């Protein structure tokens, strides 16, 4: 059986995110998985994701780190409670803070790997540290504070 990605557990009504929503046909539709204590996703940029020729636009890098990290936050919260992502009550996280350091130019001509580590889980907040690598070299590092989705943001039935 093929492993389901974190984002495959998101209910339809919160699956339209540009970075991670499986129902957003124009979006990145990233798929994140556990790899031991870390999480991982891969994404291959398109030629139109260019910053300057040959290199990836920083906004794409930020959005990949953002959505991989919020997915990691949700998965980590379920794991901390010892239950699957298909169980109730639902745990949904949004970005409170996104910090990205661009450490080296990111080549556009190959797959990118984004890896997340859980730095802290406390109350309704999860802090994730993520790296983005190309060809084995870390090109960007991010820290995301993810907080449980407030009622005001929840889709109306
Ligand atoms: C099955 C799985 C389902 C998963 C579904 C996924 C859905 C898909 C979604 C895809 C999404 C994709 C991603 C997207 O694009 S999500 C879209 C972009 N994000 C938003 O629009 C969020 C807008 N902001 C808010 O709604 C509120 O400000 C939030 C909810 C974030 C916090 O307001 P709330 O009133 O609830 O929080 P609190 O004040 O009680 O604070 C709680 C804790 O958080 C800490 N804190 C707060 N803000 C910050 C900050 N800026 N920096 C650092 N820390 C911050 C705070 O110190 C405290 O920590 P502590 O004192 O306890 O230590």
UniProtKB/TrEMBL annotation:
Keyword entries, A-Z: Apoptosis, Cell membrane, Cell projection, Cytoplasm, Fatty acid metabolism, Hydrolase, Lipid metabolism, Membrane, Transit peptide
InterPro entries recorded: HotDog_dom_sf, THEM4/THEM5_acyl-CoA_thioest, Thioestr_dom
One GO CC annotation: cytoplasm
UniProt membrane topology term: Peripheral membrane protein
Gene3D superfamilies: Hotdog Thioesterase
Compartment(s): Cell projection, Ruffle membrane; Cytoplasm; Membrane
PANTHER family, alphabetized: ACYL-COENZYME A THIOESTERASE THEM4
Name listed for the protein in its UniProt record: Acyl-coenzyme A thioesterase THEM4
Listed GO biological process terms: fatty acid metabolic process
Pfam families the record matches: 4HBT
Organism: Desulfococcus multivorans DSM 2059
Entry similarity comment: Belongs to the THEM4/THEM5 thioesterase family.
Catalytic activity: decanoyl-CoA + H2O = decanoate + CoA + H(+); (9Z)-octadecenoyl-CoA + H2O = (9Z)-octadecenoate + CoA + H(+); dodecanoyl-CoA + H2O = dodecanoate + CoA + H(+); (5Z,8Z,11Z,14Z)-eicosatetraenoyl-CoA + H2O = (5Z,8Z,11Z,14Z)-eicosatetraenoate + CoA + H(+)
GO MF: thiolester hydrolase activity
Thioesterase domain: residues covered: 54-134
EC numbers for this chain: 3.1.2.2
């Amino acid at each position: 059986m093929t492993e389901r990605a974190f984002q495959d557990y998101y209910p339809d009504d919160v699956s339209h995110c540009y970075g991670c929503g499986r129902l957003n046909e124009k979006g990145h539709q990233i798929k994140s998985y556990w790899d031991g204590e870390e999480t991982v996703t891969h994404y291959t940029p398109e030629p139109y994701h260019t910053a300057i020729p040959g290199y990836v636009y920083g906004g794409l890098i930020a959005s990949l780190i953002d959505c991989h990290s919020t997915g990691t936050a949700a998965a980590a919260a379920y794991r901390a409670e010892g239950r699957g992502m298909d169980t109730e009550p639902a745990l949904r996280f949004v970005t409170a803070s996104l910090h990205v350091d661009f450490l080296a130019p990111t080549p556009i001509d190959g797959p990118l790997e984004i890896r997340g580590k859980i730095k802290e889980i406390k109350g309704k907040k999860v802090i994730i540290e993520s790296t983005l690598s190309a060809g084995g070299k870390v090109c960007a590092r991010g820290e995301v504070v993810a907080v449980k989705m407030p009622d005001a943001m929840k889709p109306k039935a």
